[in-house]
Amino acid sequence: IFEAPCSSVSSESIQDTDQEMQIVEELHAARVGKSVDLPGELMNMEIDLEDDVHSSSGIPSNNTSDRKLLIVIDTNILMNHLKFVRILKTTEVPGFDKLVLIIPWVVMQELDRMKEGKLLKHAQHKAIPAVHFINESLRNQDRKLWGQSIQLASQKHYGLSDENNDDRVLKCCLQHQELFPCSFVILCTDDRNLRNKGLISGVKSLSKEELSAELLHLSLNTDVCHQPCIPKQQLKAETTPLKETYKEESINSGLAILLESIVSDLEKSLGTGLSSILETEMKIAFGNLWMEILYLKPPWTLLHLLQCFKKHWLAVFGLVMEKNLLLTIESLYKNLCKANKAVDFTTVKFLLQDSRSLLHAFSTRSNYDGILPQTFAQVNKLLQTFAEVKTKLEPNSSENTVTKKQEGTSLMKSHNQEITVFSSSHLPHPSRHQEIWSILENVWITIYQNSTNVFQRLGSNSALTTSNIASFEEAFIYLQKLMAAVRDILEGIQRILAPNSNYQDVETLYNFLIKYEVNKNVKFTAQELYDCVSQTEYREKLTIGCHQLVEMEYTMQQCNASVYMEAKNRGWCEDVLNYRI
């Protein structure tokens, strides 16, 4: 086991969030500094708009008495979260006839200047697809996206200054509040100061994350009488139950919003971990020349990082990692490209599972300055969110409580060297199968966490390590116990997955869980475990877990072989071998 040097990747290189905030802050500074002042009365609009998309007033000829949710989109949202905006445009929200996106005239002007490289040149690559999205929607006369007309934008209104682009965006919100008194207007911007101005002016103002969370809540909780983000008087007056088809549309919209949010968070957290790995391993392989050899220069997106891993696999990663790990990289890249076009449940599931497998594989080499454990924890949290929503969307979900993943797990008590799994939180009572499966997941997580501690201690060349295992000897002895535990679990799972398996085949795994599982809140029989793993859903999960455990067992064997001679020279091996036998 080899402990790689610490990474020194700058926050700008590894945090996509920093790039997003940089755009928000620089755009705000440009607005304040009037470097995005528009000529004349906003007449030099370069984006080609169809004349027949709007009436002369600039408002589509819909009935103004319809109850619409009108969301005014600021420039920074289109730049940083275009995928979210695309999904938003197709969202159905309970209590409203339709959701409509409003693009202020000044936002289109700012995007056009950035597209031409006249403003925030480093963000030009983000402005171009945003402009294309707006133009395509308007040309196709998409009734779910409106552009503020030049006539409305030119009006002197509400005492707001036309010299300030923040005020121009706010004026657009106030105009639509006045034009559509039966509708509800929300301003979506990541500019905190603009949100403050909106709130002071009586305009509901939310960041992308806030809007995503509230729309998700509305979509998944279709009782229109109890909605937190929108006043009751703005909702449709009728309180009769929603039609099943409308409920399905709302749930599908909510799921799309959630999946987009999960993918967005995954891109940030996994990007942080992989950028640290990439820089560290490139420096080991090429020294000070690494940046010149690097396939794609930072700042990176997650797609860029995966491309770099594929490009440099043979010369860098293939020398220190298993060859089949490249298949995981390729799967991640393929599914991420797919998710960037349209998110779906299966694609996100594969993304999260592959991400966890990839991080675990690299954790056997190094913790990369502590970044990898943090990233792994974030990915596990996303997997938990994913599982909880899947449970909620299942039929009869109202009868089931979402399973909460047990926290505070540990696999080791050093004073007696016993392997234990325990939980610091009380489990709720969802379906029996979910309770049982949560224990199996907990076993996997704790084995991973403690194998990481063992690898760090055995592979560390210095006293500086984040492992909580006190000594090399303790880590070596504990490695033998981990190997024995993984071997027992694998034997049990493989018997269950064998063709024509029956009730007796579950006993090996059941006996292991009963022996090592210390959880007073959950008791189950071998029959209940058999019923659980006989379900197609859980059998598929068990198959994935089996593959991951096989990889882990191989890694443990490699680690054991690399330190065996040192352990033998120190006189530990006889006792350990006797213990294993």
UniProtKB/TrEMBL annotation:
GO terms for cellular component: nucleus. Pfam families: PIN_4. The lineage of its organism: Eukaryota, Metazoa, Chordata, Craniata, Vertebrata. This is Transcriptional protein SWT1. InterPro entries: PIN-like_dom_sf, PIN_dom, SWT1_Regulator. Residues 69-196 form the PIN domain. SMART domains: PINc. It comes from Macaca nemestrina (Pig-tailed macaque). Transmembrane segments: none annotated. It comes from the Eukaryota. Belongs to the SWT1 family.
